[in-house]
Known about the structure:
- The complex is a heterodimer.
- By secondary structure, chain A is of the alpha/beta class.
- Chain A is 41% helix and 9% strand.
- Chain B contains 13 helices and 14 strands.
- Chain B is α/β, with parallel strands linked by helices.
- In chain B, the strands form 3 sheets. A 7-stranded mixed sheet of chain B has the order 3-2-4-5-7-6-12, with helices on both faces. In chain B, strands 9-11-10-13-14 form a 5-stranded mixed sheet, sandwiched between helices. In chain B, strands 1-8 form a two-stranded antiparallel sheet.
- The chains are: A alpha/beta, B alpha/beta.
Amino acid sequence: MDSSTSGAGEALYRTMVRIRAFENAAETASQGGVSAYGQQAGGAAKVRGPLHLSTGQEAVPAGVCAHLRTSDYLTSTHRGHGHTLAKGADLTRMMCELFGKATGFNGGKGGSMHIADFSVGMLGANGVVAAGLPIAVGAAHAQKLMKKSDDITVCFFGDGAINRGPFLEALNWARVYELPVLFVCEDNRWSATTASGPMTAGDGASARAASMDIAATQVDGNDVFAVHEAAARLVNEVRGGAGPRLLHALTYRVKGHVSVDLAAYRDPAELAAALETDPIARTRGHLLSAGVNAATLDAIENAARDEVDTALAIADAAPWPDASAAFTDVQTTGAGQWH
Amino acid sequence: MALSKELSYSEAAVLAVQREMEADARVVVLGEDVGRGGIFGQYRGLQQTFGAERVIDTPISEAAIMGAGVGMALAGLRPVVEMRVVDFALCGMDELVNQAAKNRFMFGGQGRVPLVARMPGGIWDASAAQHSQSLEAWFAHLPGVVVVSPSTPQDNYGLLRAALQCGDPVVYIEHKTLWGLRGEVDEDIAVPLGKAARVREGNALTLVSWSRQMQACAAACDALAAEGIAVDLIDLRTLWPWDRETVLSSCARTGRLLVVHEAVQAAGFGAEIAASAAEATGCRIARLGAPRIPVGYAPVLEAQSRVGVEAIAAAAKKLLG
Ligand SMILES: Cc1ncc(C[n+]2csc(CCOP(=O)(O)OP(=O)(O)O)c2C)c(N)n1
């Protein structure tokens, strides 16, 4: 299927635009008091705590998750809004969670860094770099042991995560047990405030995968059609029982590490160059030249903005969790003996 | 020449590391983002002053950072190992627990591991369950390490210098929300490891705490003082070795002990102090810590994990009643 000219192209565009609209709104709602990385929280912020935006990286989750079913599993990182939306999670409930409300996915217990929607197979964002990799491998191992279907697990992680042991241990495990897992490295060139390149020996995620006999594909992660096409092949192979695969998507982190980080440590020219390849603008241009109506694309954008506005209003009006919720879902055996 | 100036808790820490790096060429720093000053500014300017070979930016590799720190220490350096927050220090646990803490003993005293593992702890506003933990009791339980948790800029300066001069592995837990706290720092005041500070004097009861919870305890003491209750408030400062002498002599005098900490109360370090005081003095004892729940994200949930001024004052009065 040629995703660039069919309705699939519009669907990819819609996914990316919804992610961007969601994160722009969350960023605005976080202003006035985010506490991450040395800043103090202020009462004014509706979204509190560390907010990691994936602005500019939308093509990767959109292109990959387009091939996933609800019953496939997904693990994510601290930068997980895009993955979660692309996997089919409800946008409004995600906004409610960022607001800390009872109606959020986690009942306000987790917030942005711990977004999860198990109902669509999204097994959780993670505050610990690389922690999602072994978990994904475990989920894939379970899929293989239970042999109920050809469902697979997809695992997103950053280029910084490949320097932690769990990355190597998970890839090795996946190959040894021939697990149905697709590893997706979102290589956005930065790890918090340090450039990843100088901190990484060798050629990065794909080279490391190759060293463990895991076939890896590098792709322009800002080209949603390229991501979509590569992911189609890899997901198909993994589903077919070929064992683990790795997709190495080269993209860029447009914003700072967290929403309060202005990324003053970064060369402005680097950002400017990256913005030229903004995946959403590129896709729009591509679809237009393929004959898609500008009005169609405008409608997609307007719908996303409306949806996000509605979500903001709902999240704002939603109730706080009851204080007693702090004591629920901790454990069953021994629960109640808090002191 | 006494130098006293107003510094923040993080500036005090920078100054301490700087002074030790000036005095001792063996002191090096390694960790993520330290070249840029650390995520809380607690290394600000050090790489410019001492170069990238002594203030070493590392990959996101906590196990390797901690393990390399052990190796550097065995080979004669005095590394400051940065873990960002105590929650991520868990990614380097074998290297700390089975290696750093055991090396000297296990190899019959052949090796020494003089490293300082800095791992900011405590509730960090709206940072939820994986960025808000208080795990000091884990480390105090571990033979072979020193455990330090300063509550003021002066103490952060003095204790960090002492930690860097100490020949054993030190778990150094600064509070994630104290970085901006300002106070006088006198460079000539040494703060020895293992010595508590008596912050308020009184005979009604002994109140022991540490780290950020000292602020809530001080406020509770003020409230109690207004009602004529004079509290002996002790800042433990070092959890291992802890200052038994200061704490137990106070307990013997007041006959009552309240221990307050931000960590979960169950199996917390308060239990160690309480049991010691009971054994040594037979005084009346109460503990106050967080319920045994992960820290929630929403403000109302996070609040359930906080030990506040009113709860402290109430616990003190109950103990007196
Ligand atoms: C084990 C661990 N170490 C450090 C951190 C702090 N931290 C959070 S995100 C991040 C950068 C991660 O970089 P990368 O994996 O490339 O993902 P990106 O942020 O670029 O999406 C760091 C260092 C953490 N959360 N967990």
